[in-house]
Predict the structure.
Amino acid sequence: MWSGRFRQPLDPRFEEWQRSFPFDQKLLRFELAASRAHAKALAAAGVLSDDELKQVVGALIAIGKDFADANPQDDEAEDVHHFVEKQLVARTGEVGKKLHSGRSRNEQIATDLRLFVRESIDELRAAIREFLEVLVARAEESKSAVMPAYTHLQRAEPVLVAHWLLAYFEMFRRDAERLLDCRRRANECPLGSGAIAGAPLTLDRKIASRELGFDRPTANSMDATSDRDFILEFVNTVSILGVHLSRWAEELILFATQEYRFIRLPEAYSTGSSAMPQKQNPDALELIRGKAGRIIGSQVALLTIVKGLPLAYNKDMQETQEPLFDAAATSSMCVEIATGFMKLVEFDHARMKQACESGFMDALAAATYLVHRGVPFRQAHEVVAGAVQKCVEKGCELSGLSLSELREFSAAFGPDIYQHLKIEAVLACHDVAGGTAPRQVERALRAAREQLAAMQEAHAAHA
């Protein structure tokens, strides 16, 4: 493609080392689509005749069909752009050589990568939506089941199991929204930017942009050929997704231990031990937790590659592709495995409820009871703390103290205090938007279903 300027051949080891075709062939579909769009812009500019356009587009479609289910092998192709050009010329002769008129590989790779990121976002959002569907379905199944909620890994207050699951729904819903926001910024077309200063032909850039489903052409040729923000933003977004998946996995790993026994691991997503016959290990969850680090590593690599680059294109940018591809594939697989796991995991609701019956998880409800009877909260807090200390000494819960013992700490305690210490009352007192009171959780479930429907509509709009 550029040998006319050189008189000496490349060092063989360097030539092999600098080739990107072994990995950027992943972009073949996008390169072919972008080439067809460019061909139509060339035809509109009078560079290709109608017959030549038909030949070129037909050959590009044929290349796609020929290599749709195979990894192309070509020891001479430097990159995916070179491969397509070679294939095109082999099929159309001199006409194929016209396709590179008015364009540069700098804009080609920028376009291909945007198309890849856009498709990856759409696929990942669809996968996240399925995961969210499962979370909501499991929350609906849980009905009135309760479990301990934790702060500092210490039992804090009882919550509905559905409320806990909806906390993860909110977490992953934000990931889907971030991806959609990233898609909006990525959806601009670099074609027509040339190598750095813009195409040397008077091309209507809207033609290629429209053909490829972009919102608009990019605004500046130097920025368009050197911009990798859309990659950084995408991988940053899936890094956050990876962190959320890791947090989810870690909690379920804890809940599967004999010390908690809140869940039973699905055998389809577990492995055993080669030494200990009794073991059932949460390998799927552990791998998700580990692969989050791999995704974050890709983000660090990308930031480090780009941070010192002057405008515009530099060969360093070739190194942004593999971290991108790996982060996209890894995050997608993690969501798929998490969804399958979540469908099959079993909750031990009886064990969860039992865990709510100890550890003074009704202490805040007792303090709130006093607040409703005119006791300032700070004083109520101290009163209940003193009562808890007495319970520790006696080896009982707050409900195990007699009314006379409770009144040693405050005369505001009445005979009805014991009703307020029951789990149902403790849950109901959190009757605020976003709280765990049953009627608030019912509202949250309805809102979640509405949000899932909106996500489906958004996905259909981009399909």
